[in-house]
Amino acid sequence: MPLQCGLIQVYTGDGKGKTTAALGLALRAAGHGLRVHIVQFMKGWPEYGELRSVTFLPTVTLRQHGRKGFVHPKKPLPQDYEMARKALEDARQSMLGGEIDIIILDEINNALDMGLVGLPEMLELLEEKPAHVELVLTGRGAPAQLLERADLVTEMRCIKHPFQRKVEARRGIEY
Ligand code: ATP
Ligand code: MG
Q1: Residue 121 neighbours by CB under 8 Å, 6+ apart
Q2: Which residues surround ligand 2, an ion (CB under 5 A)?
Q3: Which residue has its alpha carbon closest to ligand 1 atom 13?
């Protein structure tokens, strides 16, 4: 059964848990047979565990739109803009195609913050959202206008992170 009332959720802030909260939601939704599409902005590294996990979930798909390296916040490359544009187009097509119940736009907030995606384009996408589709937008630095427009906003606040004492990203925990 499709979603009765699709809303807009934002997970932002500087603490850990934004992407994993969205993945947790995908896991829960898959248990009800809901169809979830995860669009990852600025991610192209093939080692993320979720790339493999989704192959076990028949109603969940994931597409990465990014390079392997990090995007420089002040000096993105021309291909970073192009990949972000394709990611947004992927999200739009999934949203309007009638086949997907929940779309997760992972790290879109960072892409907005860095100017890889324009805020007017983003707000336009939100205006086009069909009533039965849920959108989940993750990433640091979500702009104020997005927070205003969203139905649910959660801020992950960093109180402590092992990175601060030089513990490197761990397989299965951070990726
Ligand atoms: P996760 O993917 O673990 O849910 P996230 O989506 O909240 O984390 P991002 O802002 O996307 O985190 O950051 C990317 C990477 O940085 C992740 O591997 C994450 O675990 C790590 N990270 C998150 N918060 C912090 C922090 N406060 N300090 C250092 N690294 C962090
Ligand atoms: Mg994240």
Answers
A1: 88
A2: 18-19
A3: 16
